Amino acid sequence: MTRTRPMTAAVIVAAGRGTRAGPGGPKQWRALAGRRVVDWTVAAFAAHPSVDHILVVTHPDDDAEAATLGVEVVHGGATRDASVRAGLEALAGRGFDRVLIHDVARACLGGRVISDVLSALDGAPGAAPALAVTDALWRGAGGQVTATAARGGLFRAQTPQGFRFDAILAAHRAHPGGAADDVEVARAAGLDVVIVPGDEDNLKITLPADFARAERYLGARMDIRLGNGFDVHRFGTGDHVILCGVRVPHGRGLQGHSDADVGMHAVTDAIYGALAEGDIGHHFPPTDPQWKGADSAMFLRHAVDLATAKGFAIGNVDCTLICERPKVGPHATEMRQRMADIMGLRPDQVSVKATTSERLGFTGREEGIAALATATLVKP
Question: For 165-182, b where at least 16 C-beta lie within 10 A, e where not — what string?
C-alpha cells in the first residue's frame, strides 16, 4: 500500500533528574494540574493527527513510573544527547521519515507548534521553534552590570525540534557529544535548520516557580468535567457479591441483569455522565438478553474508551459503597487495583471506600447495596 504522508515519531527526553526544580523527585513524574508532567507532554503528541508513534526515553531508576505511560520506553544515557541517540537508535530501521525531539519539561506544548515544525520539514532537513529575544541584554558580575549586549538576531530556542529521521540519526552518530540541543548536533553535521514561531506558553519547567506558571497555562485551556453515578442492587440468593470487580464471599448475592456489580456500575455511569453520554442502560439496554450475566468490566471499558475517543483522560474516580455487610475494608485495596487495571489508571487515581446508613433505609435493613461515584475527566 502506498503511503500518503511521511511517518513521524516523537522522541520525548525524560531521563534527567531535574535537581533545579526543587524537592519532590524528578520533575517529569511530579503532579501538574491533575496529571504528571510527563502525562501532559505525551498527551500533546498523542492528540496530534500527524504523530504516528511516541517513544519516551527514561532513567533506569524510573522503570516503575515509566511502565504506566502506555507508550514505548527506552533507557537513556548519562547526558541529554546520549539519551536522544538512544531513542533514535531504538527507532532506526522502522520506517520513520521524520522525528520530533522534545524535552519532557515542556508540558504546555500546543498543537500549532507541532504542526509548524512538521510543515517546515517539507522543505528543510531540520526545523525548530524559537522566540525572538525582545528584552534588553546585559552582562554582569558580582551583582553589577558590566556591559550591554545587542539582541539582534538572538532567539530563545524551544522544542520539539524536528528533523528528517535518517539525517539526524547520522548526525548524532557522528557527533562527539556534549551538545546543548539537537539543533547544535544538526548544524555540526551541516544540516540546515529552519526557525518557526515558538509559543510563550511552551515554557520549560526548570525552577520550582515554573510549576505554578505551567498550572496557569494548562488550567486556562483545559476542559475539566465531573460526573456522578449512583446505582442500587437488591440482595437475592447466592454465596457472594461482586463489588468493584472483586468476588466477596457473602451469605446472599446481588440481583441484576448483568453481574450486579453496583460499584463498577456507579463508576461507569459517572464517566458517562461527565461525557453527557447517558448511562449504562442507554449503551447496554437491560432488555437485551446478550448482556444477561455480563461482566461489568465490559461496561467500564466501554466508558473509558469513549472518553479516550473524545480526547479526555480520567484524572481520578471515587466510589463509595453503602451497606451494612459485607465488610468492604479488607477488600478495598484489591478493588482499587482491579478498577485501576480496567481503566488503565494508577491505583492512587482510584478510591474505593465504604460507609453504612446507620441502620436506616433499605441498606440499613440489609436489603441491598448502593453505590455513589464521582469521576474527573480532563482534556488538555
Answer: bebbbebbeebeeebebb
